[in-house]
């Protein structure tokens, strides 16, 4: 009797594991960005500013025939500039979204290491056909002459 119960319990556990795995895979495919973090790209030309906790991105774009010229500057927060001496592995990305905020594509815009001087970027991008929003993401590490490190990042994807 115990062997049958143990076998039945094992079968039920495996069934739950397979079901949970399928749910996790389905959720991973449905990545999106909340409305508060979306920037409209429906106008043919636009200039704006996006502010995160650690950086400000001054950007402008122009669109033509499924392509976008996206340029601007990344400026670092006062707390990073005054608290640290060296920037390591900084990356700025753009995330393109459909009308529901679903992620269509992510691209890199800028990468840098060294000083906290403004970082320019200028990219020509082939837009996904149904992109109506974009969002910014970033990551990096700030150091103070190798004594103190802090990682900073922002990803609006959930």
Descriptive keywords:
158 residues, alpha+beta, Immunoglobulin-like, four-stranded antiparallel β-sheet, globular
Structure in words:
By secondary structure, the chain is α+β, with helices and mostly antiparallel strands. The chain has 2 domains: 1-30; 35-154, Immunoglobulin-like. Helices cover 22% and strands 49% of the residues. It has helices at 2-29, 78-83; strands at residues 39-40, 45-51, 55-64, 67-76, 86-97, 103-114, 119-126, 133-143, 149-154. Strands 1, 5, 6, 8 and 9 form a 5-stranded antiparallel beta sheet that branches. A 4-stranded antiparallel beta sheet has the order 2-3-4-7. A hairpin with a 2-residue loop joins strand 3 and strand 4. It is globular and about 50 Å long.
* CATH top level class name of the largest domain: Mainly Beta
Q: Please, what is the average pLDDT?
A: 86
Terminal Cα separation, in Å? 47 Å
Number of strands: 9
Task: Please work out how many helical segments DSSP would assign.
Answer: 2
CATH architecture of the largest domain: Sandwich
- CATH fold annotation of the largest domain: Immunoglobulin-like
Overall domain count? 2
The proportion of strand residues reads: over 45%
Structural class by sheet pairing and helices: alpha+beta
Element-by-element helix/strand order? HEEEEHEEEEE
How does the major sheet shape up? 5 strands, antiparallel
Helix content: 10-25%
Low-confidence stretches: 4-28
Compact overview of the structure:
With 158 residues, this protein is of the alpha+beta class.
Describe the SSE topology.
Layout: H1 2-29, E1 39-40, E2 45-51, E3 55-64, E4 67-76, H2 78-83, E5 86-97, E6 103-114, E7 119-126, E8 133-143, E9 149-154
Antiparallel strand pairs: 1-8, 2-3, 3-4, 4-7, 5-6, 5-8, 8-9
């Amino acid at each position: 009797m115990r062997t049958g119960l143990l076998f039945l319990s094992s079968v039920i556990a495996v069934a739950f594991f397979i079901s949970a795995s399928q749910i996790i895979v389905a959720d991973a495919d449905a990545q999106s960005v909340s409305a508060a973090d979306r920037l409209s790209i429906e106008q043919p030309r636009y200039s704006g500013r996006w502010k995160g906790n650690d950086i400000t991105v001054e950007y402008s774009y122009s669109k033509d025939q499924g392509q976008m010229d996206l340029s601007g500057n990344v400026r670092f927060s006062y707390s990073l500039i005054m608290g640290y001496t060296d920037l390591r592995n900084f990356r700025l990305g753009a995330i393109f979204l459909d009308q529901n905020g679903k992620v269509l594509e992510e691209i890199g815009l800028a990468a840098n290491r060294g000083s906290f001087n403004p970082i320019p970027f200028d990219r020509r991008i082939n837009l996904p056909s149904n992109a109506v929003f974009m969002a910014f993401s970033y990551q990096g590490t700030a150091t103070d002459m190798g004594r103190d490190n802090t990682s900073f990042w922002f990803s609006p994807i959930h």
